[in-house]
Write a structure and sequence with these properties.
9 strands; hydrolase; five-stranded antiparallel beta sheet; two-stranded parallel sheet; 27% helix; 201 residues; iron; alpha+beta; Peptide deformylase; Peptide Deformylase; peptide deformylase activity; EC 3.5.1.88
Length: 201
């Protein structure tokens, strides 16, 4: 059995993070199993709860979400506040499409492995319905709520070329400009390998 490989995570400023990613033919896509396995390995090594393929420099519509680990770490009261009767998920999303967003919204802090050492308050729908292929390449249409839905939306944004920074108000974006440039320049440390844009191009 092939051993998993840790992949460098693309840093803010790399153009792949702004690409709208393409669907794949999951049955014919070369190295799909290895890519997904390496993404899980990379995500956990970086201490993340989600990871999208463009974050490892592969601009296709694949992302991972693990909200179960977060659920297990929370106290009962927090679970009631952040989860809606579920216990979180560990799932692969391939060729995903959000087909419905609930009217209720809520705001919570989000960070991103591609934007280390920063976080911001983001308003998102409490519930979503999404169609996708799971890790077994089976078609799914499911509705998710609360923190699980937030994690899915965050990763889904990545395959649409959107970052959580885009939801921040102009004042907050301006305040983060210098820190973001430091990340793009490789001057903000992360405890995992990162891939930066080619400054010579």
């Amino acid at each position: 059995m092939t051993e998993a490989t840790e992949l460098p995570i693309v840093a803010y400023g790399h153009p792949v993070l702004r690409q709208k990613c393409t669907d794949i033919d999951a049955l014919a896509y070369p190295g799909l199993y290895e890519l997904v396995m390496n993404m899980w390995y990379t995500m956990y090594n970086a201490g993340g709860c989600g990871l999208a393929a463009p974050q490892v420099n592969v601009p296709v519509r694949i992302f991972l979400v693990d909200s179960r680990h977060t659920f297990e770490l929370l106290e009962d009261g927090e679970r009631e506040d952040l989860f809606d009767g579920d216990e979180g998920i560990q799932d692969t999303f391939i060729n995903a499409r959000i087909i419905d967003r609930g009217a209720r919204t809520w705001t919570d802090e989000e960070g991103c492995l591609s934007i280390p050492n920063l976080a911001g308050e983001v308003e998102r729908p409490w519930s979503i319905t999404i169609s996708y292929l799971d890790g077994r390449l089976e078609e799914q249409v499911k509705t998710f709520h609360g923190l699980t839905a937030r994690m899915i939306q965050h990763e889904y944004d990545h395959i649409e070329g959107i970052l959580y920074l885009d939801y921040l108000n102009k004042r907050k974006q301006a305040a983060l400009k210098k820190r973001l440039q430091r990340i793009a320049d490789g001057k903000e440390s992360a405890r995992y390998p990162m891939l930066f844009a080619d400054k010579t191009s």
